[in-house]
Design brief:
8 strands, single chain, alpha/beta, Spore Coat Polysaccharide Biosynthesis Protein SpsA, Chain A, 426 residues, 12% strand, eight-stranded mixed beta sheet
Length: 426
Amino acid sequence: MALDDAIIKYTVWALYFISLYLLIYWLFVMFEYNSPTPKRSIINKEEGVTIILPMWNEEENIGPTLDSLFNSVYPKDKLHVIVVDDGSTDNSYNVAKEYQKKYTFKLIKQKNGGKYTALNKGLESVKTPYFACLDVDGYVDKYAIRNIQKEFTNENIAAVMPIMKVAEQKNMLQKVQSLEYILNVFLKFFISKINCVHVTPGPLSTYRTDVVKKLGGFIKGYNVEDLEMALRLQSQHYEIKQSSDAIIYTKCPATLKGFIAQRLRWYLGSMRNVLITYRFMIFNRKYGEFGIFYIPFVALNGLLGFIGVALVSYLVIRSIYRTLKYWYLTNFDFATYISSLTLNFDILAFNFQMIVTGFILYLIIFLYVYLGYINAKERLNIKGTISKTFLFLYFFFVLKFILAYIWFKVFYRLIKGDTNVWIKSK
C-alpha cells in the first residue's frame, strides 16, 4: 500500500470514528434529556424586560424592527426599548427620532465604538430584571418576548436564546443558511439540556440584568461579544437555555462575499476566545461536559471539517491526475478508452455494504431535518422533508468547500496574528 493510500485510509477511519462517536453522543442526549421543562405561570413570567437595539447605518431596518417590537403581545408597561445609535453615518438616527412620535422608547447617540460599547451604553439605563439584545435587522414574532421569558425557570439560568429563522430567502445561499439556522437551533435545544451552549446570538438573546452587570457588561471579545459573553457565563457556572417557541426572524448575507466576511469574523473570533481567553476550560472537569466534551469539540470542529474537505479534494484531484496520465500514455486515444468501458449489472458485484450505509445515513439526515423543522414550529410533509434533505446534501457537499476555504483563512490569520475586523455582511 502506497504511503498516501495508507494516510487516507487511517484518516478516513479516524473521521468515521469521530463522526460515529458524536452521533451516538447526540442520540444519547436526545433520548436521555428529552423531558419537558417546567414552565412558570403566566403571572410570574411577564416581568419587566428591556430590549437594547445597537444601531449602525440601519436606516432601512430600524422602522420595521421597532414595529415588530411594539406589536408584541406583552404588557406595555413592562416592555422597555432602548435604541443606541453607534455613530451612524447615514440617516439612521433621524429615522429613529421620527419613530419616537409613534412609539415611546429611549434613543441614545454615541460616537462609533463598536457593538459591545453600544450594548453597554444601553445597559447603563436598564432597570428591569431582564434585558435582551436585538440586532436592527431582526423582526420578532409577536409572542417571542413572552415565550422567551417563561424559560427562566430557576435563578441559575442567566440567558435564553430564541429560535432564529431567516427572514428573506431570495437565492440558494440564503435558503441553505435558513436550513443551517434551523438545524443549529435544534442542536442547541438538546445541548442546552446539558448546559453546553457556547454562544448567545445577537437576535433577541435575553439575559438576567443583575448577572451581566455583575460580570462587568459586554467586552469586545474579538468582535464576537455574544460568544464571549456565553463563554463568560459558562466559566461562572451559569446556565444558558434554548427556547422552543420564541421565534425571531433575521436577515442573512445574500452574497458569497458577505457570507465569507461574516463567517470569517465568527470563526476567527470563536477560535481566539476559545484558544486564548478561555483555554483554561478545555478538558477541565470543573466545567462538566462543557469543559470535557463541548469546548474541545468547538476547538477541533473547524480543523476536522477542513481535513475532511481537503481529503475529498485530494482524492478528486488524484483521480483526475491518474485519468489524464492514462490518456497521455495512450496518446489520448479516446476511442479505445471509451470502447474499453463496460457496464456490469451483476447484482453480486454491487457493494451492498456501501449501499446500506448510504441508505442509513440518508435516513438519519432525513430524520434530523424533519425533527429540526418540527422543533422550529414549521410544518413539513414527506415531500418537503425530502426537498430539505437534498438541500442539506447541497450544504454538506458544496458549501462545505466554501467553509473549508474560510477555515483555511482562519488558521492563516491565527498563525499570522491578524486582527478580527467587523464588516457589515450583505
